[in-house]
Amino acid sequence: MKAVKVGLLGLGVVGGGTWKVLTNNADEIQRRAGRRIEVVGVAVRDVQKAQGLVGDSAYVTQDGMRVVRDPDIDVVVEVIGGETLAREWIMEAIAQGKHVVTANKALLARHGNEIFAAAEAKGVTVAFEAAVAGGIPAIKAIREGLAANQIQWVAGIINGTSNFILSEMRSRGQSFHEALAEAQLLGYAEADPTFDVEGVDAAHKLTLLASIAFGIPVQFNKTHTEGISHLAREDIAHAERLGYRIKLLAITRRSERGIELRVHPTLIPTERLLANVEGAMNAVLVSGDAVGPTLYYGQGAGELPTASAVVADLVDVARAFDVDPAHRVPHLGFQPESMVDIPILSMDDVVSSYYLRLRVEDRPGVLADLARILADADISIGSMFQEPHGDNDADIIFLSHEAREGNVEDALRKIQYLPFVKSKVTRLRMEHLL
Ligand code: NDP
Ligand code: HSE
Hints:
alpha/beta, Rossmann fold, Dihydrodipicolinate Reductase, domain 2, Alpha-Beta Plaits, 6-stranded parallel β-sheet, 25% strand, elongated, binds NADPH dihydro-nicotinamide-adenine-dinucleotide phosphate, binds L-homoserine, NAD, metal-binding, Asp/hSer_DH_NAD-bd, metal ion binding, Homoserine dehydrogenase
């Protein structure tokens, strides 16, 4: 059968890995795909460096449009990142009737609806396994393996950089900045690492997971996003003592009231598998009504793991090359005319458990006043811990039962202004993942 000809936009961490996997595993990939998959054109900024890697087997150019418009090329792999050129080149590739494989979650989170609509109109595939959780086939698992289910919720550790930082801070006592520098050296971090540490990258990925889980449009702008850069080391230590680990968790859940879309540091009981996902590893926990909870674990970033997902998408494209577009797996797992626009819940309406820490004057009546405000807001206290601080103060930690977040925020506003409260109240969410 005729080989599938690939144009590679970018030959950095992911593009270089894709080249290596396609080269090293060419025979095995052909046995699976039924055709050879050959890179024939590459676009980069540094032509000389790239030509050194690919040799004579492909041309190298700075002009991505040349690759995208090359009539010999069947599939364009976009791994340059960013939202400007990547979007132009992908839209042009689709217009040219070429299939697209991309690892660019930032682009899909913001422009996915437009890109998928254009691809459907043109009858081509836009595959994006590498955009979520790197080498873990989470997209394929939810979209195809769990197709029988009504998905109830998805909770994931889907940013390797922030998980690496939290693990290093907890286990090796590294500072936030030391751990971030190491993650950057290892090639995990985004070009702009604030995307990693402020939860933006995880939110990009979560919006894609929510779309394939619930058949809803991609809605990055409605995702609540909090990162780990302001997390205090003492909260990591307190959580550990209380039997929890703090993870940057990306959660989407369907309820009768709407869909939750949220990324934030979260206390998880230490005995949960997710709490033990360490370093740059990722894990995605998916609960379906028929199957129950299922867990997908693996490397969420880096050269070869991410390339593994890119190449798997290429194999899918190669296998379905001559298939009528109507018989391919839909981009988001649901037939386009069956997508629904379920409202996204505001954070005030989300129900969770909470970890609250504050410093107070250690004198009679303090605890009673705090408990009264929490009770008036319908917040039930699960447990409470107190530690003396100096001669006159104490640090208090409350772990609440489930409460509506809007009520918690109202109560905290009142607590914050009490005369005996001597610190800003730290509020972290807790999830039991059952
Ligand atoms: P890199 O920065 O390592 O590589 C980017 C590549 O794109 C380089 O080869 C660069 O060329 C090329 N490039 C950039 N701008 C241009 C341009 N204007 N014209 C031509 N070529 C250009 O990025 P990554 O490989 O890390 O990331 C690529 C994408 O994959 C991003 O969307 C990222 O979010 C995503 N991703 C990354 C993962 C990872 O672990 N790194 C994991 C999952 C997804 P040159 O080499 O000449 O500089
Ligand atoms: N910067 C991302 C991470 C790369 O750390 O997980 C993988 O998407």
